[in-house]
C-alpha cells in the first residue's frame, strides 16, 4: 500500500517540495506577492544509499536504473494488467502480465495475439472485446474466453468498431468492412476512391466522332453493345442483393486524412485534402557515417518557412441513399475573419507599406495534435449525431461542431478563439452516452477545464479553478468523468472524478508525485503509473473510489540506483519581477549547504529544459533523469543548481503558455534573471559565478541568454540548439511565431542568429549531425555567423552518429564532460 501524507510548512519565497533524505527546510520564509495563494507543501522523504554518483554512471545506458514498466494497459477481465519491459542490453521489449496475485510473468511470443491491446474496444453490452494485432483483427468473448481471428491476410486491417447491430466493422486500405459474428459473413460497407467518378460510356462528341458513328456501322454497333452491357450491370447491381457496390469517388489529386463510420453503419464522414508532397527534394539531412560508407542523403521534414497553406474538405456520405456532400465551413463563427490583421499591419508598416484588412474564408482542417489518442470525429451512441473538432490553419481558432444531416451543414457548438494560439493539448471531447450532449475540455477561462453541453443548450463547467484538467474518461452510464489534475500545486498531479449529475468533485488518489491512470473495463479499478522526484515510475492498482488503498504491482528499480547518494531538489516558487505569478523551479542545494550562510561564494548553474512547452519542476520522475543525476553531482561538489519552469512551460495555464507569443527568448530569459537574483539572495550564490545550459529549446535559451543579456551568465552550453526558427518545423513554430511570410518581425526578434553579436562570455555548442528535429544546419549557420563576427569565446563539438536524442552512452559522456569542464573552468 502506498499512502503518503502532505506536510504543510512555510518555506523560502513560496513553496518547497522535497523527496529526499531530509525534511530540513532552508532558508527562512519570505512573503511572495502573487495573484493567488501559493501552496506550502513538502513531500514525505525518501531514503537513499551512500554511494556517490559519477559522471560516467549518470550517463550510462539507462538499463542500470532497472528498466521500468512501459505501455501498461488493462486486460479484458479487469483483473490482469499487461505492460512492456525492455530487455537488458537490447532495444527489444517483452510483454508481461500481472494479476491480482501480483506475480509478473512474460507473455510468450506465440500468445501475443491473444492478450488484447491498450486501445481495445468493447461492444455495448461489454461481452465482446476487439483489437488489432499485426494488421489482423481479433474478437474475444469475455464470458467464454473464446478468441476469433476475423482476418488473416497480408493486407493491413485495423480500426475495429462494433456497430449497433453487433457486427464488427474494420478498415483495410480505403475500404470498410463489416463482419457478422453469427454468420461469419464479411461485407464491404464502402470503398472510397481518390479519383473522379468514371463517366461511363460516352456519347460521340464533335463533328468527326458523330460522323464516324453515322457512317461506320461497326463503330455504332460497338458503342451500342458497350451501352447495353453498362445498363445490364447497373440493373444487376440494383436488383441482386448478393452484389455490393457502395463505391464513392472523392476526387482526383486528393489524399484521405480521416474516415469515421457511424455505429449505425449507414453514415460516414471522410476528410480529404490536396495530395501535395510533404517535402521537397532539397529536404535532406546528410548522414556521413552510413552503413554503406557513402554519404546517405536522409529525407528530412519541411521547414516552417517552406510550408504551404492546407485546407481540408469534410464529406458526409449517406450510405443508405448512396449520396455524398461536401460540408461548407461558412456556418462556423469567424470562418472568414482576418484574425492576423494587426500582425500583418505591423509587419507591413515595418516595410513602409500599409495593410488593408478584408474578410476571406480561412483554411480549416481537422484538429490533429501529437500525443492525442482519440479521433477528431466522434459519433454518439446510436450514430444519429456526429461531432467534429476543427482548427484554423492560422492556429487562432478551434471549433467543436455537429452536423445537421437534413440541412447538410455544420452547427457550431463551441468556438475557442485565442489571439496567440490554440493549444495542441487539452482538446479531448466526446458524447455522453445515450444523450444528445457533449463533454469537452477548453482553456476558455485560462486553464483547461471540463464542460458539458446539450446540443440545444448552454455549456456548463464541471470543473473550475487555477489548475489544469487532462485525460478525461467518461463512464458507460455517463455518471462520472475521471480526470487528472494539478489542483494542490502545479507540480503535483492526482486523479479525480466529477459526478455529472450533481457536480460533486472527488479526489481519488493522494500519492504525492506524478500519477497517470487508466480506468478498468468494468470501471471498478484504476491502473496507476506513479513516480516521485527521486523514484522512477512503477505500476499500482486501486479501487476507483476516494481514499482507496493502493497496491503496488511492479518493483523494477535497481539496487544499483537505490544505492546511489543523490541530492533531492526542492521545488521553490521564485518571485517574478515581470508578472504576478511565481516561477516554479527545482533547486539542488550543495550537500554542505548551511542555512543562513553568507559570503556570496557559491557557484551556480541554471538548467533550461527542452521542448519549451514542457513541465519539469514537478514532483514526479523526470525524462531528464541523466540531468537529474548530473545536477546532484554538481550539488555534491558545492554548486547550487536551478531548473526553472520558465514562461512558456506546461502545467500553468494559458497565459503562462502564450507569454512567449511572437517573442520567444525574452520572457524566458527574464525568468532566468529572476532565478539568478533569487539564488544570490537566498542561496549564497556569487552573481559573477553562474552558468547555464540546456538542449533543444533549452539550447536556444542558452543562446538568447548569452546573446541578449551577456552579463547574466559567465558561461553557457547550448545542446542540439535552435538558432533560426524559420528552419524549424511548422506544427510547433507556427503556433508561437505565426509563419515567416506573415510575421517576419517575430522570427527576427526570436532567433538567436540575429543577436549573435551580443556574445561576450564562454559558449559551448554541442550538435548531433543526424538530428532530424533541430537540423545540424542550424549550428553550421550560427558558427559561420560567429566567425564572421570575429567572436573568440566559443567552441563547437559535433556528434556524427547521433540524432536529436542521443543513443550512445559514449556520446552522452563526452557531451557532459565538456559541460562539466566548461563550468569548472569558467565559474
TrEMBL record:
One of its GO terms (molecular function) is serine-type peptidase activity. It comes from the Bacteria. Pfam families: DPPIV_N, Peptidase_S9. Transmembrane segments: none annotated. InterPro entries: AB_hydrolase_fold (IPR029058), Peptidase_S9_cat (IPR001375), Peptidase_S9B_N (IPR002469), Serine_Prot_S9B/DPPIV (IPR050278), WD40/YVTN_repeat-like_dom_sf (IPR015943). One of its GO terms (biological process) is proteolysis. Residues 376-537 form the Dipeptidylpeptidase IV N-terminal domain. Residues 632-827 form the Peptidase S9 prolyl oligopeptidase catalytic domain. This is Prolyl oligopeptidase family serine peptidase.
